[in-house]
Automatic annotation (TrEMBL):
Pfam families: MFS_1 (PF07690). GO terms for molecular function: transmembrane transporter activity. Residues 25-40 have a biased composition (Polar residues). One of its GO terms (cellular component) is membrane. The keyword tRNA-binding does not apply. This is Putative transporter. Residues 89-517 form the Major facilitator superfamily (MFS) profile domain. Gene3D superfamilies: MFS general substrate transporter like domains. It is found in: Membrane. It is a multi-pass membrane protein. It comes from the Eukaryota. It comes from Cercospora beticola. The lineage of its organism: Eukaryota, Fungi, Dikarya, Ascomycota, Pezizomycotina. The chain crosses the membrane at residues 88-106, 126-144, 156-173, 179-200, 212-233, 245-264, 320-338, 358-377, 397-415, 427-447, 459-480, 492-514. Keywords: Membrane, Transmembrane, Transmembrane helix.
Length: 533
């Protein structure tokens, strides 16, 4: 996420303190002080009056060493942009996430309509349409966050939106295996931008309390898209338009999103600061302004270190990152597995048509509505502790509720479908899917936020394993989902998933009892949390 800073400072800052921190010297432009240097050790620089005036007019200030920072209270900082400006940019980003996630989950539903034209098997069709898209997203999730951190997000958002439209058009216009392979992989690759970077963009513009709702809307919109995708895919495929028109529609929406992105503004504070200082230096011909070294554009070695090495280290050495990433990824991927497997349950057991079978996923969307309740609790916690530190564990309430809700929902479904239960109405099992919709949003929201709060200065690295695993598992689960339900039967296949969900309840207890102790025992987490004090 423009380094995925979901509620980044929430663990340690009140709203005013957080905004003050956000306005400290950041980014890099013409020169940057050496690591470890302070205002007292850097060389004194005489700032000409015209340069000071230019800086002041752009909402900037400088110390006597020429180090530039945001001026306190300036309206030029993204946190203090007008409400319409922030709302527009956030809405465009969330809409991008909705559309790109929706088209990530159409693959399983259109395979029966497309494999004859492509001349391929159902398994390969799933791989081409679903797995390749999500593997592309997994790769993009490793590349885009450090790029957005260093160079800002607006240009990348725009490029990704137009790229998404172009490669979706390729799939629609040329229904051949090579075109589908290239089109789905590249469109999945660019979909990583709103899927992984969007939360950081939201963090750039909104304070802690506003972010609780904005991040919730962002995640809920993605899960809503997953729930609606099967029905939309089947409806279009069975219409006179045919399955190819799904991708023409995606291409049109991609173009519209690209146009909308052109009217966004760069919200990365470090990038804005860099641009403003460069303009002042260029117009005044004064080259002694500097900015903080820590936000300078990284070298290739730094890029590899932060983008690849640190995420691997955190995943394999930090229990919190390991457990959280696996849980959130599995729960999110289950919906892709269900998209491939559940329609056959309702078609074979209840005589549903293919369209009727795809409509059962709307129940997942119903469950999303109830995720508003934990956000109200989060707001109350934030208000109650406004003047004191909020521990990361204080915001795990949603996970403590979602873990047993998920287990109940999956066990409920397992015991309410044939062959073990041939007398129950299909609505009994359909209603249980609402619990799944609730749980997916809560797992993704709360656990990603927990990682952000625990590894604040390494947020991108802490979330990279989760993002990569989520996309990879989402792409691979559909490949064995149908076979799993066919070979084991719907009941026993669901018993396996329900058993895993029950194990997650034990992890929730572990985090509730020992979470703080585990976090404080980690040198990486302890150092990061301490930085916020």
């Amino acid at each position: 996420m423009e380094h995925v800073e979901h509620d980044l400072e929430a663990a340690t800052y009140s709203t005013e303190e957080e905004e003050e921190k956000h306005e400290q010297p950041i980014s890099n432009t013409l020169t940057s002080p050496e690591d470890g240097s302070t205002a007292s050790t850097r060389e004194h620089v005489d700032i000409p009056p015209n340069v000071n005036q230019k800086l002041h007019s752009k909402g900037l200030a400088t110390d006597n060493s020429g180090l530039v920072r945001w001026k306190s209270g300036t309206s030029a900082h993204p946190r203090r942009w007008p409400l319409f400006r922030k709302s527009y940019d956030s809405a465009v980003i969330i809409f991008m996430e909705f559309i790109m996630t929706l088209f990530s989950n159409v693959g399983s539903s259109i395979v029966p309509y497309s494999i004859e034209q492509l001349g391929t098997s159902e398994e390969l069709g799933l791989f081409y349409f679903t797995t390749l898209y999500l593997l592309g997203q997994a790769l993009g999730g490793l590349i885009f966050p450090p790029l957005a951190e260093s160079f800002g997000g607006r240009t990348i958002y725009t490029t990704c939106a137009f790229g998404f439209g172009a490669f979706c058009a390729l799939v629609g216009a040329s229904p051949t295996v090579p075109a589908v392979v290239v089109g789905r992989f590249v469109s999945g690759f660019v979909s990583a931008m709103p899927a992984v970077v969007a939360c950081g963009s939201i963090e750039n513009m909104w304070n802690i309390k506003a972010r609780i709702w904005l991040v919730h809307i962002w995640i809920a919109s993605a899960v809503l898209a997953l729930a609606l995708a099967p029905a939309i895919a089947v409806a279009v495929s069975e219409s006179p338009l045919g399955w190819q028109w799904l991708f023409y529609i995606a291409a049109i929406l991609g173009g519209l999103m690209g146009i909308a992105c052109l009217f966004m503004q760069e919200s990365r504070p470090s990038q804005l600061l860099r641009q403003k200082v460069q303009r002042v230096s260029r117009t005044t011909d004064f080259r002694k302004l500097s900015v903080n070294h820590q936000d300078s554009k990284p070298s290739l070695s730094t890029f590899v270190q932060e983008g690849l090495t640190m995420p691997l280290r955190l995943f394999f050495t930090e229990p919190i990152v390991f457990l959280t990433s696996i849980m959130a990824a599995i729960v999110y991927a289950v919906i892709y597995l269900f998209t491939a497997a559940l329609p056959q349950v309702y078609e074979e057991s209840f005589g549903y048509t293919r369209l009727q079978g795809s409509l059962v996923f709307v129940s997942i969307a119903v469950g999303i509505c109830f995720t508003i309740l934990p956000r109200i609790y989060d707001i109350r916690v934030a208000c109650r502790k406004d003047a004191q530190a909020i521990e990361p564990e204080d915001k795990l309430f949603g996970f403590y509720v979602a873990a047993p809700v998920l287990a109940v929902g999956l066990w409920w479904f397992a015991f309410s479908v044939p062959p073990l239960n041939s007398s129950a109405s299909p609505w009994v099992s359909i209603c249980s899917l609402a619990l799944l919709g609730y749980s997916i949003v809560e797992f993704d929201n709360v656990l990603s936020g927990y990682l952000c709060d625990t590894y604040a200065s390494r947020t991108a690295s802490a979330l990279a394993p989760l993002s990569f695993l989520r996309a990879t598992l989402s792409g691979t689960f559909p490949l064995f989902g149908s076979a799993m339900f066919h070979n084991l039967g719907a009941n026993y296949a669901m018993f396996v998933l329900a058993g895993i969900a029950t194990a997650f309840c034990a992890v929730a207890v572990l985090f509730g009892v020992f979470g703080k102790r585990i976090r404080e025992s980690s040198p990486l987490a302890e150092k990061t949390v301490g930085m916020g004090d």
